[in-house]
Automatic annotation (TrEMBL):
Highest taxon in the source lineage: Eukaryota
The organism of origin for this protein: Toxoplasma gondii p89
Biased composition (Polar residues): 52-70, 383-393
Chain intervals for the UniProt region annotation (Disordered): 1-70, 383-448
Protein name (database record): Toxoplasma gondii family E protein
């Protein structure tokens, strides 16, 4: 229920629907890439509902009304308009390039995340990520400035009331950090600017994350398809439901670190499976070194070179962890169905315990994926920030995608095998974005 405003102007923002499964996210992104006059309307624009005349104008003492805050607001609003206009112009310029209109059309599609971008399209995607990251950085900086000035203006108003003997009124500005609504913000020369900036910032953040998901999904697909070594023969003991299983067997199996396990114990099967996958994932570092040696063109700026290496490392690890995730998911599915038919209480208890170990390993992988994805996003944000702060030394991707050696290498290897017939899309699993199918799964379902 809305709290009465006591005559103050009330400001609201309306957020696009971002609930899972609605499709609102990508549709909102596509709409926001078009021109905007900043006058309000749909798709997250600002609506101002006014009651009495401005409390800022009513409540100010003469010396406060003519303060520096009132004169600073137009300049800050002009800066916001300039940032928005420049960004939209840059996006339109990208769209006007050869193939740009087709690429922008992909953004609104249901399968944007999972598209196997052609090399030229991936180059455009990287440029769009940087444009959005730079735009987001500028909006965040403007929001901080506007918020600071807004707070100072309210404090000055409160002080003026105290001086004149009026009861002080406490500022009640509040916002949802993770959302779009700013409700009940006290009016100042900067309150409208805060709302407009917050709306633009939150939309830009949403778009930035969407583009990063498409980027990592594309890179992970190429990495799993071309660069990662095949998952080794697991060589795990028999599960209780498999033919030849002997519950009384005294056979001993060993982990990579030499820990002895009883082969007939179902939990041993889960432990060996997880250990084998961890050993396979450990090969990723050497694979990264080989791929970078062949296809990476490090930029001259050592800081940007470090960031590019961080991104390549993160995306390789995302791909490797999710190949492992799929192996564990297959085991969970197969063993889970088989366990239903076990009648021996002891064996069934052991099998259920093994399944818990597999589920725990999957949870660990999801945590690692989030860690790697956060590192990937943070690295791109740092590049965008550096471009804004040092425009004379900005980094822009080259058309050959030398900044993404896995993408460049996959394109060269594919060209050696012959041109692809058409552009394809791959569905990521419903539960997490950028989870890639293994090569064997792709062959089975006909996606390669």
């Amino acid at each position: 229920q809305e709290v009465p405003s006591r005559g103050r102007a009330r400001h609201r923002t309306r957020a696009p629907d971002t609930r899972a499964g609605t499709g609102g996210s990508q549709k909102g992104v596509k709409a926001s890439l078009g021109p905007s006059d900043g006058k309000g309307g749909q798709d997250g624009d600002v609506t101002v509902v006014s009651g009495k005349p401005s409390t800022w104008q009513e409540d100010q003492a003469p010396q406060v009304r003519s303060s520096r805050f009132t004169s600073m607001a137009p300049s800050l609003r002009s800066k916001l308009r300039s940032v928005v206009t420049d960004h939209l112009a840059a996006v339109e310029q990208l769209k006007a390039e050869p193939g740009g209109d087709e690429f922008m059309g992909l953004i609104g599609s249901d399968k944007f995340i999972g598209t196997a971008f052609r090399p030229a399209q991936y180059h455009m995607l990287t440029r769009l990520i940087l444009l959005k990251g730079e735009y987001l950085h500028r909006l965040e900086a403007l929001f901080e400035v506007a918020s600071g000035l807004h707070k100072a203006a309210l404090e000055q108003r409160t002080q003026a009331r105290r001086t004149s003997g009026a009861l002080p009124k406490v500022a009640t500005a509040r916002s949802r950090d993770a959302g779009y609504d700013i409700i009940g913000i006290d009016e100042s020369p900067f309150s409208g600017i805060i709302i407009e900036t917050a709306t633009a910032r939150d939309t830009a953040r949403q778009e930035f994350q969407l583009f990063l998901q498409a980027d990592t999904a594309c890179r992970c697909a190429d990495i799993a398809r071309v660069h990662l070594p095949p998952v080794p023969d697991l060589g795990i003991p028999l599960f209780p439901t498999e033919e030849g299983y002997d519950p009384d067997s005294q056979e001993v199996v060993y982990t990579s670190s030499g820990i002895a396990l009883r082969a007939a114990d179902p939990v041993s099967v889960a432990i060996i499976l997880r250990d084998t996958l961890l050993q396979w994932q450990a090969q990723v570092e050497s694979v990264i070194s080989d791929v970078e040696a062949k296809w990476w063109d490090p930029p001259s700026d050592p800081d940007e070179a470090r960031r590019q290496h961080e991104r390549t490392t993160a995306v390789f690890k995302i791909s490797a962890t999710y190949v492992s995730w799929h192996v564990l998911a297959d085991a969970m599915n197969y063993w889970g169905h088989a366990t239903i038919h076990l009648t021996d209480p002891a064996l069934k208890a052991g099998a259920l315990s093994a399944l818990k170990h597999v589920a725990s390993a999957q949870d660990e992988i999801l945590l690692l994926k989030r860690e790697y994805a956060q590192a990937y996003s943070a690295s791109y944000r740092q590049t965008a920030k550096a471009n804004v702060r040092n425009p004379q030394n900005r980094w822009d991707p080259l058309p050959d995608n030398g900044h993404a050696p896995d993408v460049r290498g996959a394109a060269e290897l594919d060209a050696q095998e012959g041109p692809a017939d058409t552009q394809t899309t791959k569905e990521p699993p419903a539960d997490v974005a950028a989870v890639q199918k293994t090569h064997e799964e792709q062959e089975t379902d006909g996606s390669v």
